[in-house]
Amino acid sequence: MPFRPTLPRRCLHDRKLNSFLSAVASLAASPSPSPPAGAAPAAPTPAAYNALMSAYSRAGRPDEVLRLFRSLPFPPNAPLFTTLISSLAASGHHRAARAAFCSLIVSGVSPTASAFTALLKCHGDASLDSVYEVFFLQRAAAGCSPDAAAYNCLISVLCDAQRVEEAWGVLDLMLDNGFHPNVRSYTAILRGYCEQGRVLEAERLVDTMIDLGCPPDVISYSVLIEGLCRVGEFGKVERILGESEAKGWTPNAVTYNIYMSALCRMGLLDEAFHQVDIMRSRGLTLTVETVNILFDCLCRDSRFSEAVCLLEYSDELGWDVDVFCYNTLMSRLCDIGDFARVLKLLVDLLKKGIGPDVFSFTIAIRSLCRAGKLQVAKCLIDSEGVEYDVVAFNTLIHGFCMVGNLCGVQLTFMDMISRKVLPNNFTNAMVIDSLCKHQRFSAAISFLLESSEDGLVPDHLIRLNNWLVKANRLRDVLYLVDEIHSRDFVLDICIFNSLVRIFCWEGYCMHENFNIVCLILDRMLGVRS
């Protein structure tokens, strides 16, 4: 049986619950893919250390990779540096990865093509010019020209930046330098098409790969399936999965997880659970992600009592519940307004020692705001020991903004700045709205200008202009335009068009202040010229 007798008997007669419990049992019976924390290599050799570091890297444990690297009983070689850089880059620690590459250079070890390729992966928020600089730096390094993996990595970086056409140019450069594009090269471009919603071009690329004698593999098809799911083409997904054997590829657990997750998001819960039966019929091992998706399906199906019950019986089921499942249930309960149970689950997280993350607290803050408990939410965000991000602060600011509490908005914003959390565009938009709702137009203008030191955000200016025009504050609009002009900001055509539109909507074409409207538009045209 996939569960203990202590679980409520209703699970026996419920197909979805039974399917979920079977998935949990299958997951509990499978060995952990990650080495245990603190493991030591089989032998004190570079190869043994690199093998264990690579295993931790694949499991997403950069902390363990760094621990092993720091405990090396011998000087690190290039493969060890490469594994460290790749692990840090893959986990988002881009600065640490670049620092590790600098250590490689300082150590006197000659960098390999693989090390340069690992460095390419840690571009993070760096400009594409710096990525190109790293790529062509390999040509300058003695005996270290870019290999096929480096070209593929550069193609992937360009596609991530939605520069697919430029990626095709790198593909041509790859051919010019004697490297034949492989399935990884084309899959990167395939992903670029799918992320831009260009699924028809993605499908044509798959056909082209087959014609070129470079048949897509399971990763390629999984990328295509994810792209089709984004646009709701589930019929094509079914066809691709049905033709997999004839096309010479086999879907894996990741493929089905992608499909199940999309079905779950679209509310096609029966179809999502049906994929579990198909996975088992293909002999696939269910993963943690599979169980998490099924749990989300139960929550979306409003099976909240069963979901809570499953969390309570997780130890008996042998289910190692993580914070993701709690966050999923808390989020769904927040959506239906069951705020009391959201807070109870947050307390359960603390009691069980699972450790709520920032998202857990953000859901709790959202629940308190929706319940009208804004001061309690403020106390929660004021508590020490939790490093809240911009989303958490925005959630509370939005709560104050919705009830017209300007003081709460301003205090939360100042607290945010004092805790070195950078506001984003949504933050600034809410502050502008709050100030304007309370007729604090001069303060709103000052705030916009101060927040635009690193560049003017057109949406913010459009938003403020709309408020000013509706309040008949045309001279404030003129002042704002002059200030923007004096700061050498370039006004986009969308700003000019939106201002003309709001003037027309508010009836200023025949207004007594039409001369000021003309003056404003003339000044704006002067800025654009």
Topology of helices and strands:
Layout: H1 15-29, H2 46-58, H3 62-70, H4 78-90, H5 94-106, H6 113-120, H7 128-140, H8 148-160, H9 164-176, H10 183-195, H11 199-211, H12 218-230, H13 234-242, H14 244-247, H15 253-265, H16 269-281, H17 288-300, H18 304-312, H19 314-317, H20 323-335, H21 339-352, H22 358-370, H23 374-382, H24 390-402, H25 406-418, H26 425-437, H27 441-451, H28 458-470, H29 474-486, H30 493-505, H31 514-528
Helix pairs in contact: 1-16, 1-17, 2-3, 2-4, 3-4, 4-5, 4-6, 6-7, 6-8, 7-8, 8-9, 8-10, 9-10, 10-11, 10-12, 11-12, 12-13, 12-15, 15-16, 15-17, 16-17, 17-20, 18-20, 20-21, 20-22, 21-22, 22-23, 22-24, 23-24, 24-25, 24-26, 25-26, 26-27, 26-28, 27-28, 27-29, 28-30, 29-31, 30-31
Describe this entry's structure for a reader.
The protein is mostly helical and 529 residues long. Helix content is 69%, strand content 0%. It contains 31 helices and no strands. The chain has helices at 15-29, 46-58, 62-70, 78-90, 94-106, 113-120, 128-140, 148-160, 164-176, 183-195, 199-211, 218-230, 234-242, 244-247, 253-265, 269-281, 288-300, 304-312, 314-317, 323-335, 339-352, 358-370, 374-382, 390-402, 406-418, 425-437, 441-451, 458-470, 474-486, 493-505, 514-528. Helix 6 runs antiparallel to helix 7 and helix 26 (425-437) runs parallel beside helix 28. The longest helix is centred in the N-terminal third of the chain and has 15 residues, at 15-29. The chain is globular. The protein starts with 14 loop residues before the first helix and ends with a helix. Mean pLDDT is 86; it is low at 1-12.
